[in-house]
Write a structure and sequence with these properties.
There is one protein chain. The radius of gyration is 14 Å and the shape is globular. The protein contains seven helices and four strands; from the N terminus they run H-H-H-H-E-E-H-E-H-H-E. The chain has helices at 13-24, 31-36, 40-43, 50-56, 78-87, 102-109, 122-127, and strands spanning 58-63, 67-73, 94-100, 133-136. Strands 1-2-3-4 form a four-stranded mixed beta sheet. The longest helix is centred in the first third of the chain and has 12 residues, at 13-24. 38% of the residues lie in helices and 17% in strands. With 140 residues, it is α+β, with helices and mostly antiparallel strands. It has one domain.
Length: 140
């Protein structure tokens, strides 16, 4: 089932984020978490660099021994999710996808320079974001 919610002020990302959180009944990664997670573009997966993450239009927001949390645009559906999973190297961990506002995600993926050090770790902030879709990749 596809859920959509139109907001009167579609240009206001804070309102979009709030509406999406109400719709999904879970936290949505905001600009602060996305900026704090930029360093993961370089080291979340050694085989995937920042340019490939930009090409995939997704970014890692938390990494653990048994999971990889990835922010994706909230408009994605099963086909886009599966394409992303297929493009990543084989994993022995669960990949959890977290819908984010596209403007926030794009702004972070294409930001220049290094952001200020985060106050909280991405792993702690991502804990509050419920698992949207879990997939485990094994060896093929």
């Amino acid at each position: 089932m596809t859920q959509t919610l139109l907001t009167p002020d579609a240009g206001d990302t804070a309102r979009q984020r709030f509406a999406l959180e109400l719709l999904l009944q879970q936290s949505v990664p905001g600009p602060e978490l996305l900026l704090a997670s930029r360093k993961l573009l370089n080291n979340a997966l050694p085989e995937v660099g920042p340019d490939q993450w930009r090409s995939l239009q997704a970014m890692p927001i938390a990494v653990g021994a048994d999971h990889l949390d990835i922010a994706i645009t909230s408009q994605w559906r099963d086909q886009e999710w599966q394409h992303l999973i297929d493009q990543l190297p084989d994993q022995h961990r669960t990949i959890r996808l977290h819908p984010a506002i596209e403007a926030d995600l794009q702004r972070t993926l294409h930001a220049d320079g290094n952001p200020a050090p985060p106050r909280d770790s991405p792993q702690g902030a991502a804990r509050h974001s419920s698992e949207h879709a879990g997939h485990r990749r094994g060896n093929r």
